[in-house]
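Practice set, problem 2.
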Amino acid sequence: MKVFLMYKDRNFDLQQKLPSNQQTLIQDLALDTLFNAMACGDEFLLEVARKAVLSGLNNDPDTILYRQDILRDCLENSAIVRTIYDIAVESIEREKKNYLSIFSRYPAAILHRSIEVMQMFVGMLKKLRTIADEHADKFKSEGFTAFFKMLNKELGDEYFASVQNHLRELKFREGVLISAELGKGNKGINYILRKPIDKKQSWMERIFAPKPLVYTFSIADRDESGARALSELKDRGINLVANALAQSTDHILAFFKTLRTELAFYIGCLNLYEHLTRMGEPACFPLPVAPVERLHSFKGLYDVCLALTLEQKIVGNDVNADNKDLVIITGANQGGKSTFLRSIGLAQLMMQCGMFVPAESFCASTCDGLFTHYKREEDVALKSGKLDEELNRISDIVDHITANSMVMFNESFAATNEREGSEIARQIVSALLEKHIKVFFVTHLYEFAHGFYDKKMANALFLRAERQADGTRTFKLIEGEPLQTSYGEDLYNSIFGTGN
């Protein structure tokens, strides 16, 4: 039985390798806030959220749209989806309680445990089949349609009747019928479990039917050695069927584990969506396109992690950066530049893993890699200067970056003087653009920003944090020429007062 709720043709691998810069992304984009909102205190949901979001950069637009359709079904039928998830979780937890531990090497114990587990699994599978019968028509996505169709095909009435019949026979209420041969030294070999004698014969047939020649012996009640020998004979006979049934339970357990893992991603999305809805924040399904289309436009995009932290609505931004490879953001201090930059990275990751994004509308090209280069605090160990540390991190990014990636700089190369920092930034950005890599750059380096502005590049966009005449920050980003001031005087006055 296959699940296929994350990919059309394969299961989601919870052990897959994540990007080498995963910890940097988590730190710079405050991803732990997003993961915790999705998990709601559940450690398993937290793990799946982390793996799904960070591995999303490997997804193409078709996979993203496939998941989006499934997520739409989840949003419209959240109670049903949560019930299916609960069935998977309960099945896994109940199976754990039947763990064999030290007795797992005895076939009789394996068989007994497997019968109990299979009986429990049958009950859980029947619950899934009932949900499929009653609610399949409410789901429209390709993924759920195929999932419910698989349940109807694999879990028919004949399947359940056959399983129950086998389980009854494997309890051996009428004893165990085993055949064997004599080998060297008259030792028994080729032990085979035989089908029990048909009990459906009439009493006349049972009385007058020819009887095979048999020999019998009995073991005394206190003959422990004989009882042990008889038990060993039984174990040899049922060994193969015990292992076969154990493998069947493992197969069904693997199905429930996969179902739990893949639904956990959507449960996390439901948790986050419900949280944002309570706050009155918008969320939309983005339109992903191939990297060659170079699209990036949105309305009302906001920093979802800041909204979750402050528990309030956040100012959103409208930007059209279609066919732009370079976006330089300048303007007033504490005007929302870094928050805007983080919203770009968060939206990209959320889109590529198949989630909704925190915006009114959003369309963007997918990227093959996402890298952040944010300013860091001074190295307290004094192992290197700030500029050396920044250049080392750039070197590490270059070692892993590929075409069609995105790099986000936040006040990088400000550890040196204006002229030197601007020249370093110019050379690095120019090299990235030559390799068809998209760049977002928040900076106070006027010479660097205005140098690109003067080039009148068709593939460059310049945004500025809006500041009103009285110094008020609107936290809106507007298109505009880079200014030579960041209005640090506003911050000074707000902290110390204007004085006399």
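Problem 2, part (b): a different protein.
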Amino acid sequence: MDLSQNKFSGPLPTCFNNISFGRGQFSTDAFFAYGRYSVIDPSSINLPFLAMEIISSEYYITTFSEQEKVIFTTKSRSEHYAGNILNFMSGLDLSCNQLIGAIPPEFGDLRHIRALNLSHNYLQGSIPSRLSMLNQIESLDLSYNDLSGEIPSELASLNFLSIFNVSFNNLSGRVPDTGEFATFDDSNYRGNPGLCGPLLKRSCNPFAPHPENVGDQDIEVDGAIDVAAFAWSFFASYMVIVISLVVSMVFLY
């Protein structure tokens, strides 16, 4: 379902969780009709849109119905798909609209969805931890919104997540660094100065100096010591001169 680049406004409807393709509510018969054939010459079988896979010396014959090709975007790639295989390549794209409000936790009920793109909107609030129920998700793009709070650590359980983008929000706290999140880098989190963690090379301790600024701080400290030493030496020299003048005047009179 591609509703991107429109002028839809208002909050995200919670009823999106009733979308059938995102809940796996489809018949497997609509996707394939398979049988096990013992054949010597596969070319003797004439079936339209034939897909074959050799398993244990037997052929699994899969037929797809002819449908119009559809462009499906996931993992930052757009591919053409045709036939009922689209039942297994479900995605929801609401990017580049004027949507506001929070991300409904009900989106976590779309457990069979492969891609979810809510980027380039005006969404606020936190990232629902229930999105960790999207156990088939491969691409999750929440960038260019006004989301705040921490990235739920539960998302680290998404084993198929290869594209994750929360850039240019107002997120804060420690970035998950386990599971698939260990493969991400700072390009996934740009524009969130409140985020921290080893992946970002930014300490979560507010009193710890940033590694890149340690040298500058040493220079500043050394400079401060030099100024203090100069001030004390100048004061001591001034007092010596004053005392010498006083002593000289006493002896003269």
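Answer key, part (b): The chain has a mean pLDDT of 74. Residues 215-252 form one domain.
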